[in-house]
Amino acid sequence: MNKLRAQLNEGLRAAYLLLGNDPLLLQESQDAIRQAAATQGFEEHHAFTLDNSTDWGEIFSLCQAMSLFASRQSLLLQLPENGPNAAINEQLASLVTLLHDDLLLIVRGNKLTKAQENAAWYTGLANNAVQVSCQTPEQAQLPRWVAARAKLNDLQLDDAANQLLCYCYEGNLLALAQALERLALLWPDGKLTLP
């Protein structure tokens, strides 16, 4: 998330690929991109969940709708849970060719397989996109994530408190983030230690 914020401070890219299994990281990444986009004049936001009944005509017309009075717009595409199928891959490949400066594309979904990463749309988008990993941190990386998140809440954790939080909330970053917010309210001095 810190890498994404640093990249957004440098300026928006044409597209963002938010790929992973963690709902909190996916949502926070999406929100950070939208906030940055709003400061750059992206006022309209459109969201589509991709499946076999997606109205691609509507998506393509949004991408091509450019007038003197049209505002900049963002387009969020939610990939199917198992990743895009051949038909969706084909439509995404066409969509990638329609990107322009007044359109910000955000693609959100689970981590792709190697075969899915070889699809034409993905390889075409990779050069102009920022890929953000939204995978839940593994157990070995979780203490570092907790420490960084605690710092955002003005909390200082000792190692024992950090380990206890990791143990209690492993695999559920949303509950962990909420617990840290509650702890920040309960301990205004910000120092959390276990005896």
From TrEMBL:
One of its GO terms (molecular function) is DNA binding. GO terms for cellular component: DNA polymerase III complex. Coiled coil: none annotated. InterPro entries: DNA_pol3_delta_N, DNA_polIII_delta, P-loop_NTPase. Gene3D superfamilies: 1.10.8.60, P-loop containing nucleotide triphosphate hydrolases. Keywords: DNA replication, DNA-directed DNA polymerase, Nucleotidyltransferase, Transferase. PANTHER family: DNA POLYMERASE III SUBUNIT DELTA. This is DNA polymerase III subunit delta. It comes from Citrobacter sp. JEK-2009. The lineage of its organism: Bacteria, Pseudomonadati, Pseudomonadota, Gammaproteobacteria, Enterobacterales.
